Amino acid sequence: MKKTWTIITISIILALALSACGANASTPTMDPAAASTIEALNLQVTQIASTLNAIIVEKSATPKPTNTPAATATVTLTPEPTATATPLSGVWLNFDSATNCRVGPATYYPRVATVDAGVQLQALGRSEDGEFYYVRYFDTSNHYCWVWKGTSYQTGNPKILPVFTAQPTQAPSITPTSAASFKVSYNSLQNCSTSFAPTFLLTNTGNMTWQSIKIVIVDNTQGVTVTHTSNLFTGYSGCTIAQQQEDLTLGEPGLVSSYLPGEFTYDPTGHSLMVTVSVYSEKGQTGTMQSRVIPVTP
Question: What DSSP designation does 154 have?
């Protein structure tokens, strides 16, 4: 750029000198060599001016827009929510074994259904003594009944349940008139091959339904003890079942043989036997219990 301005300055000085010479001479004389030099300088000046104009135009021009690639949108993936199991609210009963569902919160109320082992029911209320839960069970005619707490394990706090002081279903069909009781008497000695089983006659004489039994027989002569337990009241005639009942209700009799388990592997005829018969208000030898002891000599 400095060289360019120097050339321009020299050109201007030469032009002024030539003008001065022309003013003083009457007849201008032009040296051919000088004329060629001046013409060459004028051409250079013209080219330089054109170059400067081009530079000025280029510098003053509005810069062309630069194509900037558009920003790429970043997609953020939101993870799917993880399903979390919600614990059951309230009080739930999980039954370990089959249990009776009754119209009232006591074992003397009639049974309306049997809840199978493995069933889960929600407790809607509890009895005043806390021994029974009021549940909704669709195997009953009105879908509601009472179960004893001893045949299930509970989840939740039973104290949050309302206490039902009045019978929420129908009134019991049997009005208690006497305490829970029963009587027992020896019936016969049954045998099947080499197995021998004393058989007894039981009668429910009280206000409670009996649902399971235990018979312990001590053979004082032989020094042997056998034990029979069952959730059924089963009497045998030889190798055949003569009678079988699920429970004994008020006034109901039933035959029970100390067989499978509880039989003797020998003939105890003539032996002195001491027999203890116990009945229970719930399955599995639980609940209210009554016992009778009788001596027997088959």
Answer: E
Q: CATH 2.60.40 in the chain, residues?
A: 182-296
Task: Determine whether 184 is exposed, middle or buried from the number of CB atoms within 10 Å of its CB (0-12, 13-18, 19+).
Answer: buried
DSSP 73-106: PPPPPPPPPPP-PPPPPSEEEEESS-EEEESSSS
pTM: 0.43
CATH of domain 182-296: 2.60.40
Alpha-carbon gap, residue 255 to 13, rounded angstroms: 151
Q: What is the pLDDT of residue 59?
A: 54
Count of residues in the chain: 298
pLDDT at site 112: 84
The residues, ordered by sequence, that sit 6+ positions from 171 with a Cβ below 8 Å of its Cβ are 104
Please name which of 130, 140, 156 lies closest in space to residue 100, comparing C-alpha atoms: 140
> Which of the two residues, 259 and 59, has the higher pLDDT score?
259
The CATH class for the domain spanning 91-160 reads mainly beta
CATH 2.30.30.40 in the chain: give the residue spans: 91-160
Query: What is the C-alpha to C-alpha distance for residues 14 and 36, in angstroms, rounded to an integer?
Result: 13
